[in-house]
Amino acid sequence: MASANKEMAVYCFDTLVSHYNNEETPPPEFDEANHPLFVTWKKIVNGGEPRLRGCIGTLEARRLISGFKDYALTSALRDRRFPPIQPKELPSLQCTVSVLTDYEAAEDYLDWEVGKHGIIIEFTEPGTNARRSATYLPEVPAHEGWSKIEAIDSLVRKAGYNGEITDSVRRRISLTRYQSTLFTMHYSEYLSYVKATRGVAHGINGTSKS
């Protein structure tokens, strides 16, 4: 079973930098495996709290190498909640890679632990019977300081349900819980890693920093 590691985060930065430079992405330095995965980009400005700039992944197992390459770009450039990340933002970026494991069907919508489990909810909307689904990675409810019900209600909204959230709505939920490993790297750490292992750190527009 694979765990998120430094080399996966490096590969995501490599993929984004190579995209901006119109270059081939350097080969990854981690082993291939099949897992669901997510790539999260955040921006740190003036030492403040990291702000989300993109987060996209898959809840279905994928080959890690192609998955991280695809979702590094998709989350950076095509998360519809945010404008595409620009090259000038790179020095402020932080990348978190998540590898998802241990999927389990929960007994009910409260059968999970904040800080331990990510959750996937699926339910049919009252009245319309429209199918809704959404997920939060394990770190999200803990970071927000939510109770289980607060997390569930937020996730119901994320799934697109705009009606009143009652206990009967919550009882419609089929919940799958999962766990994840993650690794977070700032762009400055990426540059240091690349310089130490390859002798140079790639800059933008085809330049290099020695």
The helix/strand class is alpha+beta
CATH superfamily of the largest domain, called what? Hypothetical protein ph0010, domain 1
Residue stretches low in confidence (pLDDT < 50, at least 5 long) are 206-210
Mean pLDDT: 94
What is the name of the CATH architecture of the largest domain? 2-Layer Sandwich
Strand content: 25-35%
Oligomeric state of the chains in view: single chain
Query: CATH class of the largest domain, please?
Result: Alpha Beta
Q: Into which percent range does the helicity of residues fall?
A: 25-40%
* Total strands: 8
Order of helices and strands: HEEHEEEHHHEHEE
Q: How widely separated are the two ends? A: 37 Å
Rg for CA atoms: 19 Å
Question: Largest sheet, order of strands side by side?
Answer: 2-1-3-6-4-5
The third-level CATH topology of the largest domain is Glycoprotein, Type 4 Pilin
Major beta sheet, specifics? 6 strands, antiparallel
DSSP summary: helix tally: 6
Approximate shape: elongated
Protein name: AMMECR1 domain-containing protein
InterPro entries: AMMECR1 (IPR023473), AMMECR1_dom_sf (IPR036071), AMMECR1_domain (IPR002733), AMMECR1_N (IPR027485)
Domain AMMECR1: 1-194
Organism: Microthlaspi erraticum
